[in-house]
Amino acid sequence: MLSRRKLIQCCCGGTSAALLFNPNYPNDLQAAEADPRSNQIALSPADDQFLEDLEKANFLFFWEQADPRTGLVKDRNRVNAAGKELASKEIVASIAATGFGLTALCIGHKRGYVPLSSVGARVLTTLEFLSKKMPTHRGFFYHWANISTGERVWDAEVSSIDTAILLCGVLTCREYFGHSEITRLANLVFERVDWTWVAEDTSLLSHGWTPEIGFLPYRWDYYSELIIMYLLGMGSSSHPLDEGSRRTTWWRPSGVGTDV
Fold first, then answer.
1. 219 DSSP β-pair partners
2. How many Å apart are CA 39 and CA 58, to the nearest integer?
3. The domain containing residue 12 runs over which residues?
């Protein structure tokens, strides 16, 4: 797998453009994958520092825009002067942003941005809140929630994809830290998700559900991030997807690959 720096080196060296307009594609693509050092240029110290600053700035969003008492991460944050006062009053957290935030904690520790004691405490706080206090339905989480209480806001739906993104962060922390309590809490959050419910009367998973109208009329039938949900559902030991859901055919645009 290419590191972020090597990937940028390939792009800066023109590998992507050359392959796109090369009549020998995909043969040259295979050659480039076999030798990722081809057609690269060296990054200057300034380029490398820019990448470091960019990565740290991205991490700091998830670190600073999370409620330290719950671990929930804001859906967004205004950065301009006019929005600064409003930003301090925003209470809406995104369950998907929280999942990205959990993964960011692993990266932040790996890169030395925060000490293990601080990042470990934040992970435990977040998993404790998710497992014991955050409202759920059949193990799935509401898309948007109050950052301080976890209560549903904006009449949000119980979201299949946003729950899946959260679970990716939960499981990343479980594997990265290898801590007994983190592992216990992560397993608790993951295994209580009832994938059979969201695929109850359809081989295509529903986008979500609300107490007011029930299941949303939309299905995950177009190749996209939906693969996350199906893989997590297949990997569940408590509520796994049945064979019908596993063998679902999704529509893919030309060039993306063959149907699953």
1. 206
2. 29
3. 1-17+24-40
For residue 57 the two structure tokens come to 């700035």
User: What span, in angstroms and rounded, lies between the C-alpha atoms of 54 and 250?
Assistant: 36
In a domain, 252, yes or no: no
Q: Model confidence over 153-171: pLDDT tens digits?
A: 999 999 999 999 999 999 9
Q: Are residues 117 and 10 in the same domain?
A: no
Placement of tokens 């307009």 in the chain: 21
Same structural domain, 144 and 237: yes
Residue 174 · residue 239 · CB < 8 Å: no
Q: Which residues of the chain have pLDDT under 50?
A: 1-2, 7-9, 11-26, 28-29, 32, 257-260
The SS3 assignment for 222 reads: strand
Instruction: Tell whether 260 is covered by a domain.
Output: no
Which residue shows structure tokens 């950052």?
147
Q: Does residue 253 belong to any structural domain of this protein?
A: no
